[in-house]
Amino acid sequence: MGNYLSNAFRWSETVGPWEERPGHFNDVWGYWTDDGLGFFEFLQLAEDLGACPVWVVNDGASRNEQVPSATIAAFVKDVVDGIEFARGDPGTSWGSVRAAMGHPEPFQLNYISMGNQECSMHYYKENYRKFYSAIKASYPDIKIISSCDRSTISPVEPADLYDVHVYTSSGDMFSKSSMFDSTPRGGPKAIVSEYAVTGNDAGRGTLVAALAEAAFLIGLERNSDAVEMASCAPLFVNDNDRRWSPDAIVFNSWQHYGCPNYWMLHFFKESSGASLHPSTIQVSNYNQLVASAITWQNSKDGNTYLKIKVLNFGNKAIDLSISITGLENEIQTFGSVKTVLTSGSLRDENSFQQPDKISSCS
Questions:
Q1: In terms of residue numbers, what domain contains 153?
Q2: Tens of pLDDT along 242-265?
Q3: DSSP output for 137-204
């Protein structure tokens, strides 16, 4: 959400020939963008990565302005047109624009988030209902994400998912591994669209920040019946224009490196679509451990593998046992691999000079 609607990201002005895009001013972070990386390119990036795009739409709100419900129709139409651009048949008005850009096949756009951190704004809920009705009328399969928390969602205020943002210290992030343990099941699931350790112990991407975020993600994995997905924030940063720390991937014009939290995410790369198994850590008088267990099928060899993740947030080595239920009777442990993310100091960071100072090693 920007400061003024006049500087909003308008998707239709970011498609078509690059030289014809007017660009816009990012009034939150204070720079001009030519929108060479526009709506089309973001959809391409998600497709190339095999990732799931989530479009956070311009719902007529900024920090200083908001469109009243009586005049929100143009913004609603703009979003529906944007979905047509992404998913419409090449014979449709906006689908033909996408096809002319070299992508006649529709993109897999299945998630729409209504604004960003706007639930408390005066017109948000009434405007939200108008967007919701219009999108569902044409695209009933699209999952719509509300900026409001779970307690506000009802048949009158419907939502498929609700958005959660978590920015906190490493110690508190570790404690939030149990954040969704008591969430009632059966209603809309959460999408944790922004999470990061911030503050003094985050630095520019420290090991302790990555470990705390790992604990949090293990908690989300264990509560995957209440949480649909999560994404770290931000993913990229240009080293010549740092506006936020930490970030997962740092780059400049000719080199790049992954921060510890980037390498930490490698431990979760098989989690999507895997089977979660209840697990219990058996250790006395120590509350600095979290763990999860999944089985996943390797598409390359067709075999099913067991993956156990254990995080020790404390300052000493621990002998422990883990009980896992729901497994097949025979498990081959021969050839098992242990992969570790650690370093000499909790405050260690990666850099262009030492890009792999902290990375996962087997």
A1: 5-272
A2: 988 899 999 999 999 999 999 999
A3: HH-TTSEEEESS-GGG-SSSS--SEEEEEEEE-HHHHHHGGGTTTTPPSSSPEEEEEEEEE-STTTTT
